[in-house]
Specification:
The complex is a heterodimer of chains A (about 70) and B (about 450). Chain A is an alpha+beta fold and about 70 residues long. Chain A has 2 helices and 4 strands. Chain B has about 450 residues and is an alpha/beta fold. Chain B folds into 3 domains: about 25-215, NADH-ubiquinone oxidoreductase 51kDa subunit (Rossmann fold, 3-Layer(aba) Sandwich); about 230-310 and about 430-440, Ubiquitin-like (UB roll), CATH 3.10.20; about 315-405, NADH-ubiquinone oxidoreductase 51kDa subunit, iron-sulphur binding domain (de novo design (two linked rop proteins)). Classes of the chains: A alpha+beta (about 70), B alpha/beta (about 450).
């Protein structure tokens, strides 16, 4: 199973929780908005990625699981 | 009539029948130049377009047949949308087509609508494009044999409002801002239906392919880039305007079509404000072909070519443009809102001689980080422009720090100074056989 992570940049308000919860995949730019360098989520991080999706106050983190 | 009969040879193609005077061509004159609208089966049209190699002329360069198929394969297809927004400030080709040759664009729209199973055509133009609005109203009122309904919608003219998803968003809910994709309009567009959106030039080309066939279409251009293109040539040239040229034409012939440079050139901006600066010495060897343009990290984009003379300052002009692009952000996505503004401030500081090379490097890092992080491609296009500006004019940063820059403003067109719709001048010189001049 493959899972990939993306941000809805329109919804994102730079709360920054995602980078706290999933620093392995998400870092913040100089204004606090998330940068995802590698969108593919390794199997061992899928649980954390789902928690990150749930934690975002504006529901801006999207996990496409195929 | 089978596809492939007739068709005039050489140029002009799209601009054939365009006469001095400024008005829109009448339906009867249009039919005299190009012949009647062909009766062609949907699958046959899509196959012919595929063989022609036609690509979208709105900037994305996407194969038109694939776009047609993506919608034709779906059910409950929405209207075909003609995206005549033309929000690129230097571009004038779409307004020329809609304002002077509306029937050619509408022919293409009607044919494409039938090919994908759309029962309606909506033409979207900027609300300041009065010539286009007038010409479209006149053209639609005399077309009585179309099997699809045609309507015109005027909307806001901001840079990002011409983006595909922003056009659909505007038609759906009067908000001219991009939306998150996917879903793309061909998946879920107008009122949630699969929607085909095409640029006016793409549809005008399609109307000719439908009449004269793909073999005729390929008589001009190269194998990889067949046909002709409308190019808006402006800046330091003697006769700025919209020209129809064959793919494969050299940059120096392109400039010659616009009367030649009005002074020695230092650089060319290829592809408009989402495009790329190319040093003049590197540009002269290029042809109007994707392969050549890719070799210098360019694309034809919306078909705009801006020549920058040696008397102008590339840093200053680029600072003006990137400031404009930052202001044109739809204001929805953080990386675009904050990132572009910061980059624009840095380029302005570099041009004023109050920033050092370290600040340039930081702007380049921002540019890299911003790419791909907007809902639409506005930030991507803007940073491509900035990166090329800092590459081509980077050598000027030190001299700006040491002293004042004495260059004259080149006055690249921005939103408030957009080119007026081009007109054929009464005093037009006879056009060369291979190209058609449309003076402004």
């Amino acid at each position: 199973m493959r899972a990939s992570l993306r941000i809805n940049p329109i919804a994102c308000e730079a709360h920054g929780l995602c980078a706290e919860l999933l620093p392995e995949l998400i870092r913040l730019d100089d204004w606090g908005y998330p940068i995802i360098d590698e969108s593919e989520v390794p199997a061992d991080l899928i649980g954390l990625a789902r928690r990150t999706v749930d934690a975002c106050p504006t529901l801006a983190v999207l996990l496409d699981e195929a | 009539m089978s596809v492939g009969d007739g068709g005039h040879h050489g140029l002009p193609r799209l601009l054939a029948g365009l006469e001095p005077g400024g008005g829109a061509i009448t339906l009867s004159a249009h039919a005299r130049v190009h012949g009647p609208l062909p009766n062609i089966a949907p699958h046959q049209l899509i196959e012919e377009v595929e063989r022609s190699g036609l690509r979208g002329r709105g900037g994305a360069d996407f194969p038109t047949a694939r776009k047609l198929r993506a919608v034709a394969d779906r059910r409950r297809v929405g209207p075909l949308i003609v995206n005549g927004s033309e929000t690129e400030p230097a571009s004038a080709k779409d307004r020329l087509l809609l304002g002077r040759l509306p029937h050619l664009v509408l022919d293409g729209a009607v044919l494409a609508a039938q090919a994908v199973g759309a029962s309606e055509v909506i033409v979207k133009v900027g609300d300041g494009a009065l010539d286009a609005l007038r010409a479209l109203d006149g053209a639609i009122s005399v077309r009585d044999s179309d099997r699809v309904r045609i309507s015109v919608v005027a909307g806001p003219e901001g840079y990002v409002s011409g983006e595909e998803s922003a056009v659909v968003h505007y038609l759906n809910s009067q908000v001219a801002k991009p939306t998150l994709v996917p879903p793309r309009p061909f998946e879920r567009g107008y009122r949630g239906r699969p929607t085909l959106i095409q640029n006016p030039e793409t549809l005008a080309q399609l109307a000719l392919v439908a009449r004269f066939g793909s073999r005729w279409y390929r008589e001009l251009g190269t194998v990889a880039d067949p046909g002709s293109a409308l190019v808006t040539i402006t800046g330091a040239v003697r006769a700025p305007g919209v020209y129809e040229l064959a793919f494969g034409t050299s940059m120096s012939d392109l400039l010659a079509a616009a009367g030649g440079p009005s002074e020695p050139l230092q650089a060319l901006l290829v592809g408009g404000y989402f495009g790329t600066w190319v040093d003049a010495s590197a540009a002269v060897g290029l042809r109007l072909a994707r392969e050549d343009l890719r070799s210098v990290d360019c694309s034809l984009g919306s078909g705009v070519l801006i020549a920058l003379g040696e008397s102008a300052c590339g840093l200053h002009e680029s600072a003006r443009v990137i400031t404009y692009l930052a202001e044109q952000s739809a204001g929805q996505c953080g990386p675009c809102v904050y990132g572009l503004r910061a980059i624009a401030d840095t380029v302005a500081a570099l041009a004023s001689g109050v920033a050092h090379a370290g600040e340039r490097d930081r702007a380049l890092r921002w540019a890299q980080e911003i790419r791909g992080r907007g809902a639409c491609h506005h930030p991507d296009g803007a940073v491509r422009f900035v990166e090329s500006a800092l590459r081509v004019f980077g050598g000027d940063i030190e001299s700006h720090r040491r002293g004042r820059c004495g260059a004259r403003p080149a006055g690249l067109p921005l939103g408030e100074t957009a080119l007026a719709p081009p007109r054929l001048g009464a005093s037009e010189r006879p056009a060369a056989r291979t190209r058609r001049r449309v003076a402004r």
